[in-house]
Amino acid sequence: MSNESINWDKLGFDYIKTDQRYLSHWRDGAWDEGTLTEDNQLHISEGSTALHYGQQCFEGLKAYRCKDGSVNLFRPDQNALRMARSCDRVLMPAVSTEQFIDACRQVVKANDRFIPPYGSGGALYLRPFVIGVGDNIGVRTAPEFIFSVFAIPVGAYFKGGMKPHNFLISGYDRAAPSGTGAAKVGGNYAASLMPGAEAKKQGFADCIYLDPQTHSKIEEVGSANFFGITANNEFVTPKSPSVLPGITRLSLLELAQSRLGLTVVEGEVHIDQLDRFVEAGACGTAAVITPIGGIQYKGKMHVFHSEQEVGPVTKRLYAELTGIQTGDIEGPEGWVVKVD
Ligand code: PLP
Ligand code: COI
């Protein structure tokens, strides 16, 4: 695809084949140094554990075009660390932080023409992943692995972006209490496909999962973390071993405290105590900050700030986060990594 045909202001979250992707193989106990390739097809054994037993994991991070034309990565070290934890959880060899960041840099540079312009609201989404490959049939770890990173220009994940969206509380679970919820593995997302589709069919942006043990506390959206703002200026986000530890969530916890002066709480968010929140949102790399207008639970809609207007604290958090990502606002030390 030529980038002249991309309408930067209208980008959603759809696959576009870009120029180059990074590919590295793990064989005989080590990752090779990796190469860039134009080929977007993988040729793998039919016995690959990734295909049968879900032995794989992935990441998501973005590269942002700044006002001066330079390009920022946002906290790639955190994605590298999370991917290493995900690899550990499903018995795959971790990629070092150095190799992970180097791969991301190479892919961003090689696809420079696909980075949405500063001010468009878009970014270049990077999708690193590790899969178990090679001839195999038993339920065991793979003999070989592939680490790859590809890139896609994206806009808003939830249609309309920074406007309130309604979510449906799901009766299904995406993860088990001591399962793989905290790892970014495909199985969690496979489990979320049907509940997510049902929510969307009913007109909701997505569904929200409750804790798998008691179904009484909010955990997260299938593709983003949850946060709420209380009337006494608390930023509250669920703490649970089955929630994905999001990097946006982690960053907002810090910014809410240091830049907005909010009290931050990682704790329980009981579904029957939503009245304590004056605003709520979903946060993640793809979702950025998506304001939550209302949540439907057992047939009843609970509206937070408004179904039309974004709340003031959510607006300030959004401005601070995206300002840091695009280089307009100085971020905490080490958050922004230049691609050069
Ligand atoms: N929760 C789930 C299930 C996700 O898929 C994501 C997205 O990566 C998040 C939370 C947010 O994580 P992050 O902010 O690191 O993108
Ligand atoms: C992300 O925000 O990077 C995600 O992985 C969410 C979704 C696209 C699965």
Task: Write a structural description.
The protein has 340 residues and is an alpha+beta fold. It folds into two domains: 3-154, Aminotransferase class 4, branched-chain amino acid transferase, N-terminal domain (D-amino Acid Aminotransferase, Chain A, domain 1), CATH 3.30.470; 165-325, D-amino Acid Aminotransferase, subunit A, domain 2 (D-amino Acid Aminotransferase, Chain A, domain 2, Alpha-Beta Barrel), CATH 3.20.10. It contains six helices and 18 strands. The chain has helices at 49-52, 76-89, 97-110, 186-201, 247-258, 312-325, and strands at 21-27, 30-31, 35-37, 56-58, 61-65, 71-74, 123-133, 144-154, 165-169, 206-210, 218-221, 224-230, 234-238, 263-267, 277-284, 288-297, 300-303, 336-338. Strands 1, 2, 3, 4, 5, 6, 7, 8 and 18 form a nine-stranded antiparallel β-sheet that branches. Strand 1 (21-27) and strand 2 (30-31) form a beta hairpin. Helix 2 (76-89) crosses helix 3. It is globular, with a radius of gyration of 20 Å. The two termini are 25 Å apart. The model has no long low-confidence stretch (mean pLDDT 96). Residues 60, 223, 284-286 line the site of 2-OXO-4-methylpentanoic acid.
CATH topology of the largest domain: D-amino Acid Aminotransferase, Chain A, domain 2
Biggest pleated-sheet summary: 9 strands, antiparallel
Give the overall pLDDT as a whole number.
96
- Cα separation of the termini: 25 Å
**Name of the top-level CATH class of the largest domain:** Alpha Beta
The overall number of domains is 2
Give me the number of helical elements. Answer: 6
The residue ranges in which pLDDT falls below 50 over 5 or more consecutive positions are none
- Looking at this structure, what is the CATH superfamily of the largest domain? D-amino Acid Aminotransferase, subunit A, domain 2
Class computed from helices, strands and strand pairing: alpha+beta
Question: In the CATH classification, which architecture of the largest domain applies?
Answer: Alpha-Beta Barrel
Oligomer: single chain
Helix share bin: 10-25%
Please report the total strand number as a whole number.
18
Shape: globular
What string gives the helices and strands in order? EEEHEEEHHEEEHEEEEHEEEEHE
